[in-house]
Amino acid sequence: MKNLMKTVAAALSALVIGSASQAADWAPPGPVKLMIAFSAGGGADTQARLVAEALEEKLGWQFIPEQVTGKGGLNLAAAIKDEPNDGSVIGMVVTETLGYNMAAANAGMTPDQFTPIVTTAGFQMAVVAASSKGWTSFADVVAAAKAGEDIRFGTMSPKLSDLAYLLGKANDVEFNIVQVRGGRAVMDGVNAGDMDIGFMAGIQRKGVASGDLVNLASALSKPLDQTPEAPTMADLGVDFVADGYFLFIGPADMPEKARTALADAIGSVASDTSTKAGALIDSAFGGATVFKGAELDALVAGGYSSAGALLDAASE
Amino acid sequence: MTVFDYIWLGILAVFQGPEAFSLFGVAISMTIVMVLSGFLLGIAVGATPGLAGPMAMAISLPILISVFGFSPDALLPVMGFLIGVMKGATIGGAVPAILFNTPGTPDSYMTTLDGYPMTRAGYAKKALKIAHFSSATGDTFSDIVLILTAPFLALLVEAYLDLPEKTALLIFSLGFIASVVGGSVGKGVISMGLGLLAVFIGTGEDFYPRLSMGTQALAQGFPIATSVLGVLVLGEVFKSLDDLWQDRRNTRETQAPTQAADQSLRWSDIRKLLPYIGRSAVIGTAIGALPGIGSTLAATMGYGSSARRHAAKRPEATQFGQGAAEGIAATEAANSSVSGANMIPVLSLGIPGNAAAVFLILATESIGGFNPGPTVFKFTTDTVNPELVMAFGLFTIMMIANLFNWTIGGAFMRVVGVMARVPKHLLLPVVLMLTLTAIYVQETRLSAMWAAIGFGLLGYLMRRVGMSPLPFVIAFILGDKLEETARQAFAATGGDPWFLFTNPIAAVLVGLTLLVLVLAIRKPTEIKP
C-alpha cells in the first residue's frame, strides 16, 4: 500500500511538472521483454501477464510477454543469461529454478549469473490425499504402507521426489514415487485414483475447502494457512522443506536503480488486491509474499546452497 | 432441489446472465453473444489452414479473462466463447480440406481424401453440405450422450484404466494408426517413428535437454505448432507449389474444375449416409470419452472402419479415396462427435481429452467458482450445488452452439463454396503466409520459423515417397503423453519392467497391437491417402 501511495504521489508530481520522464528515478529504456517459464493460459502465466498489464496501465511501461518453458525454468534461465541487464529483459520463474534445479542440473549455470528482482507469492505446498481414501493424517498413510499397501506418491519436480523419498525413509516405508508435470497433474492423478497421495502447491485449496481433498502434512517450514494442525516436514522427521515462491529475475549485475524500481513496481501491483493481478494472487495463491533486495538475495543463496545437502541426503 | 430444478437453473443461468444489449425490449444475455462470436471465429479459424481451434482458444483465453475478470459470473461467457470456437473450428476445418486439399485442422486430414476428389469432379458445394450435415449430426449426438452419461461413464472408464492400461492403450492407438493409414505398414511405422523422434527432442524429465546437441534452439523441443503445421500444411503447400511448377513446365493449363449445376443434398443421399454417420458418431463419442485421445484419432478410426465396410458391402459404388460422399460423412461425423464426449472426462474428472479441452480446464482454473471433478455431479437436495448448476449451464451452451451450427453453420458453408474458384497460384502464397504467421503468433522465435520450414520440407519429402504424414503427426501429439504415462506406470508399479504384461487389460491391448500389425502386413488395406 505504501508503495502504491508512493507511485500515486510520483504520478501526481509528474502531472504537475508535466514530464513523464521525471516521474520515477528509473524507467525501462524501451519495451520490456517478459519471459514466462510457465505454459500459456495457466494460473502462473496469467499472473505474469496481469502484472505486466497492470504496470502498463499504471506506469506506462510496455511489456512483450514470451513463453520460454521447460526444465523447471532452466530453459528460461539459459535464454535470459546473456540478454542486456538494463532492465529491458526480465523473466518469471520459481525460486526452485535458481535453487535445487540449477544445482541438480549441473548445466554450468549458477545463481550468480542472474539478478533476483522480487517474489510475488508463495506456495502452500502440502501432502494431499483424496478424502475418499479415508486417511485423516499422515500417520494413517504410514500405517497403510506398513500394512503392505502400495502407496503411490505424486510429485511434480525432482526436488519434491527427493522429499517424498526422504518422507518415506524417515517413517520406515517405501513409496512408489510418480513424478508428473505440474500441480494440476498431481491433483488430477489423486482425484482419478492413479495416485494415493501427492504434493500440491495451493491448487488443492478449493478441494480441501469442499471436503474432497485433505491436507495430510505441510511441506513448508511452517504450518499451512488452511490446515494449521497438519504436521510439518520437521514433525515428520525430514530436515528439508519445499518453501518456494514465484520469482522475477534478470541477467547478472542489473543496475541497482533498475532492480529496485522493477521490484517496487511489481511488488506493489502484486500486493494490491484492487488490481487484477493482485486479485488473482489473493484468490489462487493466498495473498502476496514480496521479498526483495538483500532479503531476497539471502533467500536465493540459501536455496542453492541447501540443494547440495538435499541431493546428498536423497542419494544415501 | 430435484434434477429438473437443476436443469432449469442451468438454463436460466445462461439466458438471464449479465446482459449484453437488449433487442426490442428483450434482454440478450452476454453468454449467448459470446457463444455466437466464438462460433463464428471458430469457423473462420478452422477454415484457415494453419490456424486451429486450440490455437485460437489459447490466444483468446488471456484476453477474455482480462475482459471478464475472475468472478464466477465470468465463467459462462468465457466458456461459451471457447466452446463456440471449439465447435466452429471443427466444421470450419472441412472447408479448405474439401476445396483445396489442405486440411484446416489436423483432424480434417481424412476429409481431403474424398472431399477434394469431389471438388475436382465438380461437386464442391455438395461435399461441403455433406460435411456440414455429418458434422452437425455427430456433434449433436455426442452432446446428448455427454448430458446423459457424464456423471457415470468417465468414472467407470477411469476405474478400469490404471496407468499401465493407459500406456498400453496409447501403444495400441499408435500401432493401429501406423498400420491402417497409408498403403504400406512399413512406411506407416517409419512415419510414426519419425514423429516420436521429433517429439522426444528436448523433452523428458531430465534437466539435461536430450538430443539437443548442445544448442539452445533445440533445448526447448519443437513446439506442436511448428511440427504439426509444418508437416501437414507447409508440406502440402510445398508439394502443391512443386506440382504447379511441374504442370507449368509441361505447359498444361491449371484451371478450376467446372462445378455441376445440381449440388443439392437430397433425402435419398442422406439416407445412404446415415449408417456411416451413425457408426462414426459412436466411434468419435467413445474415443472422446477416453482421456488423452483426441479427434484426429477418431477421424482416422471412423474413416478406416467405414472404408473397410464400404469396400466389402458396396464394391460397385465409388470407393473411399476416390471421392466417396460416405468418406466425408464418416470423417466429419467422427471428428465432430469428439467435442461433446471429451467434456465427459473434463467435467467429471477434470482431465482433458484433447488440446481444446486443455483450454477449457485452464479457463475454469483461472476464473474459479467451478472446480471440474467428481464433486460437480453431486445432486444435493437440501442445498443448491452451484457447480452442478454451472454444469447444466455448460450443457445449455453446447446446445445453443449446436443450434447455431445447424442454422448459421450451413449458410456459412454455402457462402465459402465460392472460394473453390480462387486460383491456386494466388491462394498458395496466402496460405503459406497465414501458416507462418500463425506459427509466429504461437512461437515468437525465429528458430521456430526455421523449424517449421524444416518440417515442411520433411512433409514434402514424405508425400513425394508416398508416406502418409498422419502417423507422424499423431505420434508427435501422443509421444509426450506415451513417455509420461509409461514412466508413471513404471514408477507406480514399484519399478516393475513387465507392467505392460502383468495387468490383464494392458496385456490384451498389447496383444491387439501386434495382431493389427500382423494383419495389416498380410493384407494390404483399402485406405489410400
UniProtKB/TrEMBL annotation, chain A:
Listed Gene3D superfamilies: Bordetella uptake gene, domain 1, Periplasmic binding protein-like II
InterPro entries: BUG, Bug_dom1
Protein name per the record: Tripartite tricarboxylate transporter substrate-binding protein
Source organism: Aliishimia ponticola
Assigned keywords, A-Z: Signal
Domain of life: Bacteria
Record family assignment: Belongs to the UPF0065 (bug) family.
PANTHER family, alphabetized: BLR1237 PROTEIN, TRICARBOXYLATE-BINDING PROTEIN
Signal peptide (UniProt feature, chain positions): 1-23
TrEMBL record, chain B:
Transmembrane segments: 21-45, 51-71, 78-100, 144-161, 168-201, 221-238, 388-413, 425-441, 448-478, 498-521
Domain DUF112: 32-474
Organism, as annotated: Aliishimia ponticola
Domain of life from the UniProt record: Bacteria
Keywords: Membrane, Transmembrane, Transmembrane helix
PANTHER family, sorted: TRICARBOXYLIC TRANSPORT PROTEIN
Signal sequence range: none
Protein name: DUF112 domain-containing protein
